[in-house]
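Q: C-alpha cells for this one, please.
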Amino acid sequence: MKKYVTIKDIAKELNIHHTTVSRALRNSASVSKKTNDLIWEKATELGYKPNLIAQGFRNNSSNTIGILVPDLQHYLFSKFISEFSNLAHQSGYSVMVFQSSDNYEIEKEIVNILINYRLAGLICSISKETRNGEHFNLLKERDIPLVFFDRIPEDIASSQVVVNNFQGAYDAVNLMIRKGKKRIALISTSSHINVFRDRLKGYKQALEDNHLIFDEALFIEQPSHCMDDGYEAAEKLMDLAETPDGILAVSDDAAIGVIKYLKKRMIRIPEDISVVGFDNGPMCIACDPELTVVSQPILKLTLGCFELLMNQIKGSSSHFEKRTIEGEIILREST
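A: Here is the predicted structure, written as C-alpha cells:
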C-alpha cells in the first residue's frame, strides 16, 4: 500500500524543521520565498496531499460541508445533493454525504461522528423515525452551523428551508375536484413528520372547502412511500365497498405503484380514477399514463439551504430563518 506523504516526510527530505514546512504549505509570510519554493517543489515531487481533517482539528473548522439525508435513492435527496455539491464546489467547499436509512439510531450515530470532523456546517433532513431532535443540539453546542430542509425536527430552533406541502396537497385535491372527482383518497406515511402531516392537512382542507366529507377509509397510511407501498395501498382502496375516483400519493414512487395496480385491474386512468403524485422525478414521464405531480422546486430548495448555511458560516446572520418555497402542479395524462 502506498504510504501517505506527511509534512514530516518533506521536512526530513529537506533537513529542515517540520513547522517551517507547515508554515510554507499554508503560504505563511514568515517563510522566505527561496525556502517556500523549495518546500513546494519537494511536496509536489513526493505527491503530498493536505490532510483536510487534521487541518479542521487545528483550525476548529474546515472547508467541508456535511449533508445528512434519509435515503440516497430518493429522487429529491439525490438531486438535492447533486445541486448542492455544485454550489459548494464553486465556493471552495467540499461535501461529505451521509445516509440515515430512515433510522433514528443511525442518524444519532452519524451526528456524533460528524462532530469530530469539525465541519464547516451541516445540511440535514431527518429520518422518518425521528421524533426527538435533541441529538442535533450537540452540533449547536459546538457552534457548527446547521440548516434543515424538507423534513424538520420541530423541537430544535434552527434555520430551515421547506416546501409548502399544505398548499401542494390542497392544489392537487382541488385539481381532481375540478375534473369531477368526489371520492379522493390519500396514500401517505409517517404523519408525525412535518412533510406528510402538512400534506394531510392540505388534503383535508381542500375537501372541507369543497363541502366534501373526510372519509377515514380513504386515508391509507403505509410504512413507507415506495412503489410497493403504493401498489398495496391501491389494492386496499379498491377493495372498499365505495372505491375512490381520485388518488393523491405523497411520492412519485407510491403514485406509480398505484398506476401499476390500477392497470392490472383494467381500471382506466384518468377516466375512472385520477392519480397525482409528489416530487416530479424522471419516472413520472416514463410511466403510462404519464403522472401528474406536485413538483418539488429542488433548485430553489438547494439555493435556500446554501444561502442560509453560508450566512451562518460567514457570520453575517446570527438568527434563525425559515424559508418556505412554493411547489407547482405539473399536468400530465393521469388526470
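A few notes: Residues 75-90 form the longest helix (16 residues). The chain has twelve helices and twelve strands.
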